[in-house]
Design a protein that fits this description.
about 220 residues; 4-stranded antiparallel β-sheet; 10 strands; disordered C terminus
Length: about 220
């Protein structure tokens, strides 16, 4: 009987380990981002497919960079530090299908964050909707996932990993890694999808608050 229980325990452990190692692979295969882990970095320290953007882009407000000092996986992660209240983000444009459901997920480590604005979050350019906003410096990577629906006729959108928001500037520092953007067929029970598009009647008020994207460190 003891041998049977021991064999059962070994088999269960093997199954759990298999799931642990295969689930990230499955997520990576469905990822529509070419460089969601920020591992592809050029000689100037710029992450492939991503661009820097900030509301205030003067020197001294924010620093957006790629670091090898800490990472959720791999060698690199993206770090955003707002020395003054700002809306700063790495953004990436991805192709999408109209009227479809998508999920954006990834890991965030907050090093410090004042309790103002939107804190560290995921967001979509030109709209005010954001993911859960993180403020507490736990010293641990926190998993964030966010669901949204594209609009009629929409073929692309620009996503961002961010500190701050439109009219919700924040002060602090956070790391971002292993970002996954994938198409899904259904929503988890109890979850509502954000509208990841600008309603035609809403105009472009959010877009007007956004300066031209920049590729230099602030």
């Amino acid at each position: 009987m003891k041998k049977s229980l021991r064999a059962y325990g070994v088999a269960l452990l093997a199954l759990l380990l298999l799931l642990l190692f295969t689930m990230p692979v499955a997520a990576a295969e469905n990822n529509l981002l070419a460089n969601g882990g920020f591992e592809q970095v050029d000689a100037n320290g710029n992450p492939a497919e991503w661009y820097r953007n900030a509301y205030y882009d003067e020197i001294g407000y924010s620093r957006l960079s790629i670091t090898d000092e800490i990472a959720h996986s791999g060698q690199y992660s993206a770090v955003i530090e707002n020395a003054s209240p700002n809306d700063a983000r790495f953004i990436c444009t991805v192709k999408v299908k109209p009227s479809s459901l998508y999920k954006m997920s990834g890991y965030v480590l907050v090093e410090s964050m004042e309790s103002v604005g939107n804190g560290a979050n995921f967001a979509i350019e030109d709209i005010y909707a954001v993911s859960d906003c993180l403020f507490e410096a736990t010293g641990e990577w926190e998993y964030v996932e966010w669901y949204g629906r594209t609009g009629v006729g929409q073929k692309e959108l620009t996503i961002g990993v961010r500190i701050g928001g439109y009219g919700a500037e924040s002060l602090g520092k956070a790391y971002f890694d292993d970002i996954v953007f994938e198409k899904v067929e259904t929503l988890p029970e109890g979850v509502e999808a954000s509208g990841w598009y600008v309603p035609k009647s809403a105009g472009s008020s959010a877009a007007q608050k956004t300066p031209a994207q920049t590729s230099h460190n602030n």
